[in-house]
Amino acid sequence: MQEPQAQTPVVVISLAALVVLWALAAWWGDDPSVLPGPLAVWQIFAHEVASGELQGHLAATLARVFAAFALAMGFGMGIGLAMGLNDRLNRWFSVWLVVALNIPALVVIVLCYLWIGLNEVAAITAVALNKTAMVATTIREGVQALDPKLRDMTRAFDMPFARRLLHVILPQLWPYVAASTRNGLAIIWKIVLVVEFLGRSNGVGFQIHLYFQLFETGYVLAYALSFVALMLLLELTVITGFEARVTRWRRA
Fold it and tell me: Considering the domain boundaries, does residue 34 fall inside one?
């Protein structure tokens, strides 16, 4: 795996090519109401930043994303570890994971709003529930893929579970944790937008709903791409750096 610094020129060139492709598509279509160009969307973005609107809605969405992400990762990792380490639990409850994975996110969101109410608790709960099963499945598969020789060694030396978890299981699981983190953030923020679209009075999803009703494509793109840019920055700095650090032992 390349270090984050080595990937920077490629990432910049790739993103620049994407913007050029967008500009060409907007020029070819010649209809700003359908697809405004990058410059027009940038001007809307700058206007929303200057007014302070965009920062406030970004902060609201980001808070929901991280709250739901923390809950999903915490419960998902616990469930995945338990099912991966205990065959009996896995036999009994694996079908529960399949059911949870196949319930549409929209259904979970609507049910949470109906049962809990149109509030923050319902919004964050709905998002966390949608992602927990995905995390649990990934971590369970990671546990089941652990090196059996290392497992037998820990048993031969009668290593306590806490030390086995810290020094043997988790180091091998970090790539799976990193994968859950990466796709978790990508999926969670999309579900958060739906939650805000349906039942919140602020956030990026709420703004997209508002400008969708007004047929303002430029504003929809400005708000959506601002959060995409934020998630991309997080991916290229925090997540990629974390993944490179925790998998360094594999390349040693």
Answer: no
Separation between Cα atoms, residue 88 and residue 227, nearest integer Å: 42
CA atoms of 66 and 74, how far apart (whole Å): 12
Which amino acid, 51? S
Query: pLDDT per residue over 85-111, tens digit each?
Result: 888 999 999 999 999 989 998 899 999
| Nearest of 175, 234, 251, 252 to residue 4 by alpha carbon | 234
Has residue 171 been placed in a domain? yes
Question: What integer is the mean pLDDT of 16-40?
Answer: 91
Locus of tokens 């997080």:
234
Residue listed under structure tokens 């009668």: 158
Residue 138 lies in a domain: yes
Report the domain count for the chain.
1
**CATH code assigned at 213:** 1.10.3720.10
CA distance 4 to 209: 36
Residue 235 has pLDDT above 80, yes or no: no
pTM: 0.81
Encoded tokens for 178: 């990193």
Q: Is 43 contained in some domain? A: no
Domain that holds residue 152: 48-251
